[in-house]
Amino acid sequence: MMRFGVLGTGHWATVTQAAALSTHPSATLAGVWGRDPEKTAILAERYGVPAYADVDALFADVDAVAIALPPDVQAPLAVRAARAGKHLLLDKPLALDPAAADEVVAAVAEAGVASVVFFTNRFVPSIVAFLNENVKLGGWYAAHGTMYTSIFQPGNPYAGSVWRKQHGGLWDLGPHALSVVLPLLGPVVDLSAAEGPRGTAHLLMRHEGGAASTLSLTLDAAPDATSFGFSYFGEHGATTLPPWDATQVEAFGTAVSALLDAATTGRPHPCDAAFGAQVVRILSAAERARSTSTIVAV
Prior knowledge:
Helices cover 44% and strands 24% of the residues.
């Protein structure tokens, strides 16, 4: 039974991570640490586990950590946890700049711990099956993805997220989008980007081998203009990403199992810290491209 500590006390830590860990057959929620002692105590009481005021004390009592914190807070704590010998179940994006992401990758490699970044789609059975089948099929030369959400509405649990307000859909939704485009089209070579109304980021990416893709992302769509969809085009025809057949809690439970497997077998998961750092490099390049109106190499 792997003992997990949760870092974070917000909505995601409460309703997804802690919930999944508390019911997982091969893991146990062993403690909680957060930046706000009062919220830490509330979350710990809800799940009947210790609340830690000292994150290093939590590291000493667990085998792994699940992190639900802003990316700029997550990265340095992930490095500390890895150096303490703890396996890492990370949130996306891994960091807000490539150097910080690379520090996490290096710490994981040096410590010999397992890492999984929770790109939610990659732990949903219907989407995993879709990607596996179509990677084997091959021949994909184009993809178009749209993620228009509207989180800044009253009652939305993420409406008050400071880092999401600052970095927008590019950094919050971009990782989800890239996680279902890169497996079929391959690594990104270079890209251009533009900003549209309501904080929309539009990306045009060129992939190794000549494939190309576009993404359109925003967290602040008009409430009646929300949209989600991915289409793929290749030598064998066209297809679309299937709907989910799991809840977020179930998907996170699958990610916990994936980390357990990676820790036991030593085989890296496809969504490990190295893949998370690859995504950060693409997002950083897109940010530069958007601000300079140039094509930027990744």
